[in-house]
Every structure is written in C-alpha cells, then in structure tokens.
Automatic annotation (TrEMBL):
Pfam families assigned to the protein according to its UniProt record, in alphabetical order: DUF2461 (PF09365)
Origin superkingdom: Eukaryota
Protein name: Uncharacterized protein
Composition skew (Acidic residues), residue ranges: 88-103, 406-430
Species this protein is from: Phyllosticta citribraziliensis
Higher taxonomy: Eukaryota, Fungi, Dikarya, Ascomycota, Pezizomycotina
Segments for region (Disordered): 1-117, 403-430
NCBIfam families xrefs: TIGR02453 family protein
Low complexity biased stretches: 7-26, 54-71
Length: 430
C-alpha cells in the first residue's frame, strides 16, 4: 500500500481537473490598512503646477524620436511658448511677493517694545473713553512689561484759611456738592472719595452739634445716634427714570424715632443754592391722612390757630399780616404740589375748608442762603432758631397723627358728645 504522502503528490486524473470551475478573471483588490493609506496620502506631497509641464515634456522627449529640421522649428516655437508662460508665472509670483513684503512694511509689528512716547499716547487714548480709567483692572495701557504707570492717590481739598468747625458748614462741602452735581456717576465718586468722606464728616459734626439745640427746643425728640438721623447720599433708582446714583445734597431729620417713623420731624437740607429747614409730615399714610382731614373737618380752628401763631406765621411762612385768609393761603401754596384735584371721598365739594382737605402733605419750610450756613459761627444758632419756631406746628401734627393716651381719651369724649348730639337731633326729627 502506497504511503499517504505519495498519494497526495500524485496528480489527479484529467476528468477531475476538467470538472473543476474555471477561475474568475476578476482580481480581488488587496485590502490596505488605514495606517498605510494615511501614510500614502500624506507621505508624498502634491506636485506644484509649475512642475507639471516640465515632467510631461521630459517623458515626451524620452518616448518621441529626434525631430527633423522642419519639425525642429515647430518644437522650438512650442518650447518658446511654454517658456513664456513659465516666465509670466514667475513674474506674477515675484509681484505677489513684493506686494506681501510691502504690506508687511506698512503694517506695524505686533511684537516689539513700544517706545516711551508711544506708550504714553496709547495710555492717554485708553483713558479718553468713559469707563476706561487706569484704576480699573484689565485696562490696556499700552506699556511694555518692564514699564510701570504710577497714579498718585487722590487727596481731599485743603481747608485753606477757613478751619473746620462743628457749628458751621465748611465751604469745601458745598464745593464738593457742586462738583457732584456736574459729575454724578460712580467712577467720578470713586476718584473723589477723600473729598466725599471729608464733606460727610463735616456735615455729621454739624448735625451732632445741632442735635443739642433741637432737643432744647422740643423735649419730645430723644438723643439718637448719628446713623439714625442722617440720610444716605445714595439714591433709590429702582422705581424712577432718573439713573443718577447719588443725591446732590446732605440731609438729616429729627423726630421721636429719628429720620424714619410715623411722627412729624424737623428736616435739614444742605445744598448749594437750595439749603432749607423744614418741618411736618411729608407723605402721611392713609390712616394719618384720614385723621388730619377729620380734625380739619371737625375742629378747623386747631390748625388755623397754629398757623396764626407769630412764630409760624411770620418766622416760617413770612406773612406779616394777621389776616387769617392770607396765612391759610400761604400754607396751602407751600403744600399744593401734590394736592387732589377733586374733593376727597366722604367730603362735600362745597365745604368751607375744601382747599385744606385736598392737601396730601402738611409741611412748613424756611429757605436758607449759603452765607447763612457756610463760613460763619452763627449757622447752628440760625438753624436752631428756625426749629424752635416750628415746634407749635410739629406738636399739633403729632397730636393728631400719633395722639397720646390723654389726648385720645379727650378726643373720644368729644366724638361721643358729637354722637349724642346727632342722636338727639335724629330723635327730635322723628
């Protein structure tokens, strides 16, 4: 028996070979790995267009036989044409290179040390626009890393020949308020913070000195800390169309609860050309306003008697005449800015005191000149005297709006008497 290897080595018979299917003429493409494809696509750079003609001409020369004399002239002409195009392409490249180099010469270099004069010019240009002050972080000054820009810290104005005193307002305070009115923004305030703090300190010292005189004039006003008396200079701009962030004045108010509360208060305002001393209740709430109108309706002689007081009539309202109508008219004109156009609900339009009932503000005001509060030692005396003249009016408003227990009992008795009279009249009519 032959060996297995010999049987495998023996050729198959012809019939078996003919029965096998013929091989397909299509060739299966060999797979190429991604890495080899990427290398083949990136390894060989694409030839430039300026070398295509040269390579093609070299191949043609190798394949074509040597031309004859007649064909040589034609070949020279073709080669001359090709040479001309190549010269034009080279010329265009040179012109483009010249244009690029000329543009680079015109444009300034981005990276380079800036000269001192150029740095100062760039810094001045950066600070020319509003909001680009050099004190802000992240502002480009144009200075090189080895250069520093030093800005001196602002200082408050010097006092000059007029010293700061507790019984008066210094002229620098009014000067600061004038500048603030012309530059009412946060950037300017930050740069002039020393002036603001010095002016606020001057006003606070004057208020502390004036508090003693207010307490002497009206013993119902307690001695409160300065933070409960002085108003902030920042404005509330949430519900107004005016975007200015600061008030252009300093102000303070004294009452039984300080600058806030339901009681009538004494008010001081320091503003260039518009300083004043006021007293009363500025915007009473609904309950307080109803009490004032009810008192005017039932007992109008109380308010009229206070207004006819000499201190109020002559010292505050500035009416020398003792005519009651003139005094009432002066008081109404001082509070007629936000008065009702129609009569309030529950009152007849033909009421004899309808003009007083229409009021929604009950205040008295005395204006001050700048010379009366600045630079003289009589400023505290002047303001204290005006506060003393307002005491009768403030006392009346507080007794009506926030009455004490004895006053409320007497008022309830008077109201009950009025009710008994009305009941008797009703019984008589029946």
């Amino acid at each position: 028996m032959p060996r297995r290897s010999a049987r495998q080595a023996a050729a198959p018979p012809a019939s078996t070979r003919a029965a096998k299917r013929a091989a397909s003429p299509r060739q299966t493409p060999t797979r190429q790995s991604k890495r080899s494809r990427a290398q083949s696509s990136t390894a060989t750079p694409k030839e430039s267009k300026y070398f295509e003609r040269a390579s093609q001409s070299a191949q043609e020369e190798q394949q074509s036989p040597e031309p004859s004399d007649a064909e040589a002239s034609t070949g020279n002409e073709d080669s001359g044409y090709e040479h001309k195009s190549e010269v034009e392409d080279a010329t265009s490249l040179e012109s483009e290179d010249d244009a690029i180099s000329s543009e680079e010469e015109v444009k300034p270099k981005r990276r380079g040390r800036t000269s001192k004069v150029g740095a100062v010019a760039v810094a001045a240009k950066a600070t020319s626009k509003k909001g680009n002050e050099l004190w802000r972080s992240g502002v480009a000054t144009g200075l090189s890393p080895d250069k520093q820009l030093i800005i001196k810290k602002p200082k408050a104005r010097e006092a000059g020949n007029t010293p700061y005193r507790d019984d008066t307002i210094h002229p620098n305070t009014l000067l600061f308020l004038r500048d603030l009115a012309n530059n009412n923004d946060r950037e300017w305030m930050k740069m002039h913070d020393p002036d603001y703090r010095q002016s606020l300190k001057d006003f606070n010292s004057f208020v502390e000195h004036l508090t003693e005189k207010v307490i002497q004039a009206d013993d119902t006003v307690p001695e409160l800390p300065i933070k409960d008396v002085v108003f902030r200079i920042h404005r509330d701009i949430r519900f107004t169309s005016d975007p200015t962030p600061y008030k252009t004045l300093f102000s303070a108010a004294w009452s039984r609860t300080g600058r806030k509360g339901p009681y009538a208060a004494y008010y001081l305002q320091v503003k260039p050309g518009a300083s004043l001393v006021g007293g009363g209740i500025w915007n009473p709430d609904k309950t307080a306003l109803e009490r004032l109108r009810r008192d005017i309706d039932r007992h109008p002689e109380r308010l009229k008697g206070v207004l006819m007081d000499k201190r109020v009539r002559k010292g505050i309202l500035g009416v020398d005449s003792e005519d009651e109508n003139k005094v009432i008219r002066a008081f109404i004109e001082a509070n007629n800015d936000n008065a009702l156009v129609r009569c309030p609900a529950g009152y007849d339009i033909k009421h004899k005191d309808i003009a007083l009932l229409r009021l929604r503000r009950f205040t008295i005001v005395k204006g001050l000149k700048d010379s009366e509060i600045v630079g003289t030692g009589q400023a505290a005396e002047r303001v204290g005297g005006i506060v003393a003249d307002m005491v009768p009016f403030i006392t009346y408003v507080n007794n009506v709006v926030m009455p004490d227990e004895p006053a409320s009992e007497s008022e309830s008795e008077s109201d009950s008497d009025d009710g008994d009279e009305e009941d008797e009249e009703g019984e008589a009519e029946q």
